[in-house]
Amino acid sequence: MDYLKELGVPVLRWPGGCFADDYHWRDGIGAQEKRPRRVNVNWGHYTEENGFGPHEFMEFCRLIGAEPYFAANLGAGSPQGFRDWVEYCNFPKGSTLSDERAANGSPEPFNVRYWGVGNELWGCGGHFQPEGAAAEYRRFATFARLIGGRNRAGIAPLYLVGCGPNGDDVRWTRGFMDTLAARGPMPNGYSMHYYEGGRRTPLEFAPDDMYTQFNLFPRVELAIVHQRSLLDGYDPNRQIGLILDEWGVWDQMIPREEQQRGRLWMQSTVRSAVAAALGLNIFNRQADKLFMLRSSSRIFVLSLTCGIRAQIFRMEVKIRAFLPAGIRGGEVMGRNSATGSPRRSITIMPPSEASRTSSEVWMWSSRIEVFLIMLRCSTGPPGRAEWLSTLDDFRTLAA
Fold first, then answer.
1. Where is the domain boundary, 281, 298, 313?
2. Cα separation of 235 and 177, whole Å?
3. Residues 301 and 334 placed together within one structural domain of the fold
4. Would residue 399 count as lying in a domain?
5. Which of 111, 140, 267, 273 has the fewest CB within 10 Å, making it most exposed?
6. What is the DSSP code (8-state) at residue 395?
7. Which residues lie below 8 Å from residue 335, measured CB to CB, with a gap of 6+?
8. CA distance 96 to 103
9. What is the pLDDT of residue 167?
10. Which residues constitute the domain of residue 284?
11. In 10 A of CB 134, how many CB atoms?
């Protein structure tokens, strides 16, 4: 909780993933002991007790300072259920549903702006064709906007997100947008998902597995550019925001750990952190094309783990640099191990006078992309630099 609050998470999406396609919001309201227990059919068939529902999620968002984003159930839900959820959350008072919200402990409306209309409709959300998914979006969005549309006094306007492709699927985007362009309404946002699976478990891998996972990110960047270009053909003024709802790399579950911890648990590794860094670098470069992005399973599963905030921004990398005699400063140069392209250098200096007993220099590098390093001295002969630990021995920086 403290780590997420310090990060300043702007928007938090819930319930995420395929669980959203079978989630019914009424299961998560009211007295805890009276909430129904459901089978999580997409993730391990364990029993979901619904102890964490819309009210608990809103309180969680309040505690960390995030804006809520609900993923509505289009797969197993109905337009009536979606419309009622919007009314329950956003209507100020006086209706049966708003009064039920107040009776459940929240007299003030939640004013939820962001709503995903379905999740992964090309897969676990119903295995739709894009034209059918767009038709369902139109039906659900029509009734949601009747209760939560613009120009209705006291009710927060909605930002409705349509379900985009799995990866850079041109056929999906064209089919979805062609269908809506004919009769509308167009979505406010358009989400895409992009993952790379792993062939081995987190702690048993080979270099080729690592490169397969990391090579996801050039494809993600191309997909962002390509999908934005496709949307611009329908929306030249960029009123539709491109959203990367889910992204990351997966490893295989260890059967014993799955039995002990459940299907939605995965060991985080330094590879997870590097993958997060690669993604964030892309998103910075392509920020003009993206409206919003979120990492899947922020708290429990993939690379952006809430309990280790340094995985998002920097890694603690211990490097020992050997300076030739008489040389008082230098810089560590990094090169990407895959492409050989140079990275920004980091200037280093010897230890303080009080501790200067040898030519060793200890430094911290914030450049996670640097895999191969060398020491280049300001003057004189070249020096030498080396990692002090293997990749999996790195630890994250807490401060």
1. 313
2. 10
3. no
4. no
5. 267
6. B
7. 341, 342, 343, 370, 371, 372, 373, 374
8. 10
9. 96
10. 2-313
11. 25
Residues 232, 324 within the same domain: no
Rounded to whole angstroms, how far apart are CA atoms 399 and 319? 18
Residues 242 and 337 in one domain: no
Q: Quick one: 230 and 341 in the same domain? A: no
Q: What is the pLDDT of residues 288-326, one digit of tens each?
A: 999 998 766 444 444 443 222 222 222 333 344 444 455
- For residue 114, give the H/E element and its range: strand 114-117
Tell me the pTM: 0.74
Tokens of 174: 């064209």
The H-or-E segment that residue 313 falls in is helix 310-313
**Where does residue 238 fall: left (phi above 0), alpha (psi -120 to 50 degrees), or beta otherwise?**
left
What's the start-to-end Cα distance of the chain, in Å?
Answer: 16
CB 347 within 8 A of CB 331: yes
Per the structure, how many domains does the chain have? Answer: 2
The answer to the question of residue 398 being in a domain is: no
Do 371 and 301 have their domain in common? Answer: no
Classify 14 as helix, strand or coil: strand
Determine, yes or no, domain membership for 41. yes
35-74: pLDDT as tens digits: 999 998 888 788 899 999 999 999 999 999 999 999 999 9
Which positions are annotated as active-site residues? 120, 246
* Structure confidence by residue, pLDDT tens digits, 158-217: 999 999 999 999 999 999 999 999 988 999 999 999 999 888 888 887 888 888 899 999
178 and 33: one domain? yes
Residue 95 has pLDDT above 80, yes or no: yes
* Residue where one domain finishes, among candidates 313, 347, 366: 313
The residue type of 166 is N
